[in-house]
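Suppose a colleague, Dr. K., hands you the sequence of a protein chain of 100 amino acids and asks what its three-dimensional shape might be. Before reaching for any lab equipment, you can write down a predicted structure in token form. Begin with the sequence itself:
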Amino acid sequence: MSFFNQRGIFLQLMQPSPSEPNTRVSLQLARKELSWDAENKMQIEELVDSTYYTAKSTDLGNSFSIETVSNDVDGDGTIGADDKAKLQALAKAYASIVNP
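The predicted structure, expressed as tokens, is then:
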């Protein structure tokens, strides 16, 4: 995460392999919190309020499914299909990036 933004999304792509035939994208949504370590006299950055999701694609990344979405990720006050759709779209977009 940058100095300017206190929240972030971390993504990891796992391509199909002989032991796992599906494409998977791991998503971590978190907030960065700064604090001061008086003993070591240094600023500390911590990730807090992390939520984790795994998106799975059985068609080589053309579409993704996520089993359960437990947080309001889009901030509209409800947890529902819109939240899941946004995470699925994020996974699909990330899976299509070939040169990170």
